[in-house]
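Recap quiz, item 2
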Amino acid sequence: MSLVSEGANFGGSMPAAAVRVDAEPSLAEVGDYIALMKPRVMSLVVFTALVGLAIAPVPVHPVIGFVALLCIAVGAGAAGALNMWYDADIDARMVRTARRPIPTGRVQPGEALAFGLTLAAFAVAVLGLTVNVLAALLLAFTIFFYVVIYTMWLKRSTPQNIVIGGAAGALPPMIGWAAATGTLSLEPVVLFLLIFFWTPPHFWALSLYRADDYARAGVPMLPVVAGDAETRRQILLYTLVLVPIGLAPWALGYAGLLYGATALVTGAIMLVLAWQVRAERRPADRASKHLFAFSILYLFLLFAVLLVERGWGGLIGRLVA
Amino acid sequence: MDEQRKDDGIVLTEAQKRARRSRSIAIAVALAALVILFYVVTLVKGPIVLMRPL
């Protein structure tokens, strides 16, 4: 799973709006609209935003916290729908994405566009009116970055697409923190950097064993453009940067010993797996698959421990005191 | 026959009717949930909900 969508094309082909135009009444079911929102990506966004919200030093009323997470979830869903609207042409060419609602004709491109724009406007407006303006602006920027900068621009034009585009997936903890405090500080920025530098090794590990699919769709992923060996080298380099950042919350003193130990052990495993990926050569893909799977667990564990230590732990501490 | 169909406008198939009904129910549920949500938020925030400096 990644916070960044996986289909892309650098052929400069027409967006989804040109894929299919007819006047047939819609056959779209509710489930199709839910699929447009990319619920798996949305769940990761909500989780990381929850951690940003929970570790903030300012207590949040549970209802306001719920509204903030709901708006962040809906905003992420809106970005997913707009991504599928724009990328329907290339989604149709990739095995993994060919069964999405627009390529299969269950949802018309115009319906997805209207759905995405409505949800985006709703999420930003409600977050601004009920929580605070900074959080709403950050959510609006995240949607804009994901849809316009990543989907419409980078994804089809550069192998650095998921590196720069990863910023969109890294912003939710900052939105959560801003929702609680109305400001930003070092703690959420470190969480941003953690997800930002996690995205390339996670995603390139996947693209190593999906390179043929990306090449067929004309997606400029690093293995397609720069080759297998260079991708493996870049994975190791990014992991070397990622692991110290994973330790930073403990080193900076806002995470406890449990977090530090978890970050140390899981970071060491990430490095070993990245080294194995570096040593592997096609057609072998065992190490790449291991790194891809473990990278999800790595990010989940770090955020979960932080949530327990600073969020739920802090909350329990306050209640007991 | 074509004339008859033209007078009737667009005639939905059973599948299209089912899909439309499920979408309508989802919209109704979402609207009801929003009414409740905004009501609860107003209670939680109190009078401050009306104080919004530009």
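Chain A is about 70% helix and 0% strand.
Chain A has a mean pLDDT of 88.
End of item.
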